[in-house]
Amino acid sequence: MALTRLSPEARQYLLVTGNYWAFTLTDGALRMLVVLYFHGLGYSPLAIASLFLFYEIFGVVTNLVGGWLGARLGLNRTMNIGLALQVLALGILLVPPLWLTVPWVMGAQALSGVAKDLNKMSAKSSIKLLVPGEAQGQLYQWVALLTGSKNALKGMGFFLGGALLTLLGFQGAVLVMALALALVWCISMLTLKRDLGKAKNKPKFREIFSKSRAINYLSAARLFLFGARDVWFVVALPVYLASSLGWDHWYVGGFLALWIIAYGVVQTQAPRFTGKREGRVPDGKAAMRWALLLALTPALIALALHYDLHPAISLVGGLMVFGALFAINSSLHSYLIVSYAGSDGVSLDVGFYYMANALGRLLGTLLSGLVFQLYGLEACLWISTLFVLLAALISIGLPRQQPPVSSSQGVS
Q1: Angle CA(268)–CA(269)–CA(270) in degrees, nearest 5?
Q2: Alpha-carbon distance 51 to 33, whole Å?
Q3: Which positions of the chain have pLDDT values less than 50?
Q4: 123 touches 146 (CB < 8 A)
Q5: pLDDT of amino acid 209
Q6: Strand, helix or coil for residue 94
Q7: Residue 42, SS3?
Q8: What is the spatial distance between Cα 373 and Cα 162, in angstroms, rounded to a whole number?
Q9: In whole angstroms, what is the distance from residue 358 CA to residue 128 CA?
Q10: Which residues contact residue 138 at a Cβ distance below 8 angstroms, ignoring those fewer than 6 apart?
Q11: What is the pTM assigned to this prediction?
Q12: Residue 354: what pLDDT?
């Protein structure tokens, strides 16, 4: 069997990545299932958005506490707990349709949010332990591949959710996903390395907050980076496409799914754009420069909309450019956190960082609905610009001048 001929580290990487891929497919499909099913029942957009509120809130808490759990229990256990919780969240939705009230679904989504962030934190932290400390080029490539493939699969999950809903109905779709993910969970329980990521010295709970200056700065920059995306992408953009440009719901959903897939593909190629050809990995200066470049995009889109310069073309074209630049920024950040994190108890640092990521998503989601309702899409875009500029400003405090990467480190 080909898998047995690989090195132990490569086998573990493939197992971690496979778990992450399977989870991401069900996560994206479940989101689309919930949106389409409750839209069909006549729920308003705000009511549907409220179904995901606990999903984001619990993500903040889970990343903070999950890193501590990973360091104490091992990343294999936190990843497997995440898979099991997602199976349970899907099972909770296998109830008679009359039980599928807003509070019930919010509870299931809260559990799914905990599961998702346990899974993601475990996957990202594991890579740090599977790559030699001096092989920074290989580390960057593996992180970019994991991050980018996850987002591409999330977009595919949107398509999967719509297809399963059409073919099997809501409960049939949920049952198929629960059974498939339960099988993945069983395989993971049997094959994933048992002591992966367990700290030699058991960290105390008060150590969940990072003491590293670099990680604190990077986490703050990440918060504003993801707030900048979601402040116009989550609510404002799809509603604007439907209400102002007249797109139907399937067109909006399909377009956003394709956008996420393309975004993920660009993430996998981020090392090519950020120094691989020069034999270097990115540092804090690169993070600042790419953030400044990204800040131009929402500002230019806002100006185009203000002066009525082909709104549809300006918005769609601008979104493509924003997606490509944001993908590079996100992948670069994902590499930096894994690089900065300590090897012993790596999940503590990664969990704290993704807590900031989740907080940025929550902030952006709340502002997206509020600001769009009060002031429109242009205001959301200007806030996005401000947030990216703040991320760039914070990135000035990140470490610089990473060592050159030799060809033996996987970037030839």
Answers
A1: 95
A2: 12
A3: 1, 3, 402-412
A4: yes
A5: 56
A6: coil
A7: coil
A8: 28
A9: 21
A10: 131, 132, 409, 410, 411
A11: 0.77
A12: 82
